[in-house]
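We modelled the chain as a single entity of 123 amino acids. Its sequence is:
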Amino acid sequence: MLRGFVMLAAFFGFTGVGLGAFAAHGLKSRLSADYLAIFHTGVTYQLVHALALLGVAALATQIPGRLATWAAASFAIGILLFSGSLYVLTLTGISKFGIITPFGGLAFLVGWFCLGLAAWRLS
């Protein structure tokens, strides 16, 4: 599990930096200021939760039970749903993709809750 979560964190960190650079240089003249801000929100949440995923992976060996695994999986799902839906929305202009975004936010919340609960249970 540890290896997989670290690899996911690296992937999301790598693609987050790449997408941020793509937005700053390649999309600046193609997207409205509102859509560029939405894309930037996706990148920000992706990078923050890539670091959170890396932190959970580092702690997973110290936290008994499955809560760390659930936290990491929730962060990964949150990145895909939250950030992914924002990227698709801004690049296609299809606003219906915004319906998916709150489910990603909910996955982020579940991840943070699981991490907090795991910490609470530590002796």
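As a brief sanity check on the tokenised model: Residues 33-59 form the longest helix (27 residues). The chain has a mean pLDDT of 95.
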